[in-house]
Amino acid sequence: MNPGELEVRVARRQAEAQDICSFELVQTNGQPLPAFSAGSHIDVHLPNGLTRQYSLCNDPRESHRYLIGVLRDPASRGGSQAMHEAVQEGSVLRISAPKNHFALAHGASRSVLLAGGIGITPILCMAERLALSDAAFELHYCTRSRERTAFAQRIAQSAFAPQVHFHFDDGDAAQKLALAQLVGTVQPGVHLYVCGPKGFMDAVLAAARAAGWPAEQLHYEFFGAEVAKSESDGAFEVKLASSGRVIQVAKEQTVVQALAAAGVEVATSCEQGVCGTCLTRVLEGVPDHKDMYLTPEEQAANDQFTPCCSRSCSPLLVLDL
Fold this sequence. Notes:
Layout: E1 5-17, E2 20-27, E3 41-45, E4 51-55, E5 66-71, H1 79-86, E6 92-96, E7 110-116, H2 120-132, E8 137-143, H3 152-156, E9 164-168, H4 179-183, E10 190-196, H5 198-210, E11 218-222, E12 236-240, E13 246-249, H6 255-261, E14 280-284, E15 287-288, H7 296-301, E16 304-305, E17 311-312, E18 316-319
Parallel strand pairs: 7-8, 7-10, 8-9, 10-11, 12-18
Antiparallel strand pairs: 1-2, 1-6, 2-5, 3-4, 3-6, 12-13, 14-16, 14-18, 15-17
């Protein structure tokens, strides 16, 4: 086991909705787990060798367990399939300590939480934290149907249930999410949080940006993304600043693949530009950003990129490797 990793056992596995299971994880040595905050996720090393990120959705005051929810996705690249088919009660897994790239903003006057499908996992944790501190918020939870709505009973039994609005794709028009109306007016101090499928998040963020929401009031976390291929993608070179070594990246290769072929390993996890595990400093050159991890402002700075999917606009990138 690598330094910083934890060994956990699945103490409980439970069906939460159609195609969604929750997994309760406890340390195999019986010790308390590291503290976390609302919006945190962990890396889970799966039995098939893949590593995937799952948001923690239990109360951050709990130190005896982590709770994650996993959707069995038919378009899975093997992660959710492994969790649903190979991980049972009693299974032992390796995980990372919690990381948080989706934290609640301090000092918000009000929070608007939007969850699409399995995106409820970090959003639910946020709602419970906001309710605990008597903060003003509303939660909009969009799913395909009631049968696919995970944690519905937990929400119904919560003190903040009146602040939650359910929106079902197969429901009548009156209960559908009125997105333009919801984000149409920008107010100082109001922060918006969104998590869910990429199409859902793109729609929410596009509507909010079109309405003039400042970047610092928009918070989001992508679970997965399809890396955009372009006809203009071509070969380029990367130079390792530490040694001066230059490595060719072919048109059909990622930077990570080219580096690995040359014996240079870069830690990766999602390989889709959503988790930030492989984030690398760029010392010279202009990256062609294809990630969903960096904010538009961070991308514009061109001083870091995700080599698992991003490429180069310039013939050479000098990397801090």
